[in-house]
């Protein structure tokens, strides 16, 4: 994953914010660690392996509220921050309060005044997340009228956010990217194995994560539903499908040669292939024969070859 950080304003007059910003710049230069935390937190809330859920609107209101708490906990675990004396964390010697809001309207209690805010927002539909730092001050904050006197950043406060990453990508949730009728087709079979088979038939040339497979299979041994000897790999090979894994260099090389999406570690990509008589674009030699990627709507009666690592 490559996600470039937002340019940092070296003219900042807040040395504490600068120190924390630079700490993150060193700890997570491309945002890969944070992106993983946001993806895993969505999946943790959906609990798809047990519930079959994969969308934000399938969650209860209390679960949606809990996302912010889980982000705070999961960032803490990932980066092993020191506990704060007053706020959530202590980073580079400074107290930092962790806030999340799906609308970027972070609620700031009176006790946060004077301290740094690590504020974030994320969208599973857009496969994007943002996180930034700002100092909570009286002039940056709207004063709340509720009993706990919480307020949100005003226009001045929002303009002072130093974004570590803005609209950065995270691993996509392909069940949100597929048309509803195709998702319904995937979930229609009663058996977990049949659903996983249908997933790899429908979601071709897409990055399929283990959490998606767990959600579709809804079984403890969900990865067994992909493997050889009765899993999707052996069943769908007869229909011309290759299931390529991002944990194997040989398989990612095949994906590149076929011109399809290249899976990252922990991901799989399904691609349908057919034999060809000569080298052409998006073709690769496997088992002594040439194969090319077949788009949806084109038929192939040939069984797909085995790929090293399968």
UniProtKB/TrEMBL annotation:
It comes from the Bacteria. Its EC number is 3.1.21.4. InterPro entries: DNA_rep_MutH/T2_RE_sf (IPR037057), NaeI (IPR015210), Restrct_endonuc-II-like (IPR011335), WH-like_DNA-bd_sf (IPR036388). The keyword Cytoplasm does not apply. One of its GO terms (biological process) is DNA restriction-modification system. GO terms for molecular function: DNA binding; type II site-specific deoxyribonuclease activity. It holds the Pfam family NaeI. Residues 20-297 form the Type II restriction enzyme NaeI domain. Keywords: Endonuclease, Hydrolase, Nuclease. The keyword Nuclease applies. This is Type-2 restriction enzyme NaeI. It comes from Paeniglutamicibacter gangotriensis Lz1y.
């Amino acid at each position: 994953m490559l996600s470039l950080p937002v340019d940092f304003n070296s003219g900042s007059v807040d040395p504490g914010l600068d120190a924390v910003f630079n700490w993150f710049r060193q700890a997570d230069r491309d945002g890969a660690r944070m992106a993983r935390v946001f993806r895993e937190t969505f999946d943790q809330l959906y609990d798809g392996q047990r519930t079959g859920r994969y969308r934000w609107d399938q969650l209860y209101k209390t679960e949606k509220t809990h996302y912010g708490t889980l982000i705070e906990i999961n960032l803490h675990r990932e980066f092993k921050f020191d506990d704060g004396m007053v706020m959530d964390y202590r980073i580079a010697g400074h107290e930092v309060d962790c806030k999340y809001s799906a609308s970027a309207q972070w609620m700031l209690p009176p006790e946060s005044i004077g301290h740094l805010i690590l504020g974030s927002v994320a969208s599973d539909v857009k496969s994007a997340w943002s996180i930034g730092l700002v100092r909570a001050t009286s002039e940056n904050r709207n004063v709340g009228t509720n009993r706990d006197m919480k307020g949100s950043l005003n226009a001045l406060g929002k303009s002072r956010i130093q974004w570590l990453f803005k609209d950065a990508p995270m691993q996509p949730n392909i069940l949100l990217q597929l048309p509803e009728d195709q998702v319904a087709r995937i979930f229609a079979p009663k058996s977990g194995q049949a659903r996983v088979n249908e997933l790899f038939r429908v979601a071709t040339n897409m990055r399929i994560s283990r959490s998606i497979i767990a959600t579709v299979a809804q079984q403890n041994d969900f990865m067994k539903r992909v493997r050889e000897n009765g899993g999707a790999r052996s069943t769908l090979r007869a229909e011309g499908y290759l299931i390529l894994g991002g944990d194997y260099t040989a398989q990612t090389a095949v994906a590149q040669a076929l011109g399809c999406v290249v899976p990252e570690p922990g991901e799989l990509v399904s691609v349908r292939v057919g034999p060809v008589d000569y080298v052409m674009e998006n073709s690769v030699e496997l088992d002594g024969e040439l194969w090319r990627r077949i788009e949806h709507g084109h038929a192939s009666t040939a069984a797909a070859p085995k790929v090293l690592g399968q």
